[in-house]
Amino acid sequence: MGFPNLSPAALQGTAGRIVREVAPTTEAHPAALLAILLSTFGAWIGTGSYLYRANSVHPGRVWPLITGRTSDGAKGTAQAVIERLFREVAKTSEWPLKAVRGLSSGEGLIEQVADEKDDESGEITPRTDRRLLVVEEEYAKVLAQFERSGNTLSMTLREAWDGKSLQSVTRSNPVTATDPSITVIGHVTPRELRERMTSAEVFGGGLNRMLIVASRRTQLLPEGGNLPDGMVADIAGQLADRLRKLSSLGEVPFTPAAIEAWEPIYRDLARPRPDGPVTALLARGRPMIPRIALTYALLDGSQAVDVEHLQAARALWAYTEESIHWLYGQLDDQEEVERLMAWLAEAREDGRGKSEIYNDFAKRHKKAAEQTLETLALLIRDGIVTQETRTGRGRPSTRFILRPQARQPFGKSGSAEKVPDQPP
Predict the structure, then answer these.
(1) Which residues pair with residue 251 across a beta bridge?
(2) Angle at CA 57, nearest 5°, toward 54 and 60?
(3) Residue 94 has pLDDT above 80, yes or no
(4) What's this model's pTM, rounded to 2 decimal places?
(5) Distance CA 363, CA 355 (A)
(6) What's the rounded mean pLDDT across residues 223-243?
(7) CATH code that applies to domain 334-406
(8) Which portions of the sequence form the region Disordered (predicted)?
């Protein structure tokens, strides 16, 4: 499967306008900007405004896992854009969000939001502000921690996503965090994620609480790619206004129209699917989409989730679905793929034949021709290469042609990947 496409429907309302506004100034992918924006805004809101579904509180707690290559994934670029906006928000906030970097252990995470002990009376009480944003730019290290015997990080993260109270169980004097509001944003490369995913994490729920979002560079900005100060001030002012007005709504309802629109989405998400890792990673769509929709609504300044918010959340979830299929369908040796694509691009519309693969490309790069043909088959599957049978003098010949839009490797021409238009 080719790289995912972000539907214009995902760029709804205030969230979409912010992404469209900042996208031309940065190399970051719109989907990564959108996911980190929604997640960070939801982390600032905390549990003061929430949905109540299946007898549980669901705040706008969205945990994106931004997945892209080290060379051109632009994961940190997207993170830096959104962080700059919220640093400006923090300048005028009475309740700035506590943010930390890195996840090492379950106990360490609990300590960040642990209940506080009065030095004089010894009384232990929950913190007044239990919000925490954790950014882990090396999420592969977290996945490695999951594999260690006795490590509690995986279970702690699952319970934190669920909104449960947390307690360290390995201490003689346990530390407790009552009803914390923890948000995690992770960055990882596709190779690291595939190599570190264990059956226990895929099927046990350690990873399907993350919103997997494929990311890549959209353009080259050698001059810096900085947000203009005026843009930062304007957007931050709007975000701060939303936070002041909507952080303590309590339960946020669905409008009657949203209730009606949710039913077919819910039925589609609930339909039986074949067992496998892709199905397991997508198993939490039913709680995820309402959480995302709630965050869209609050960003819009709405006190109820409406149809457009659900549609936007479903569109972002569709991007996650495509990201997971892309993740599992990726070609491991990307350098070989790019060499093969460049070789095909040289031939333009004439393409290359099997004899050229055997006698030219395979020999030149000391690769087995059969392996090159397997790579070609995957490129054909992803719509990057077409296969044609041509007739003329002699026997028909099979030609492999790189599609025109793929003839310049992505991210190297300096041309921008187009941000989806605003939905009607």
Answers:
(1) 50
(2) 115
(3) yes
(4) 0.81
(5) 11
(6) 95
(7) 1.10.10
(8) 390-424
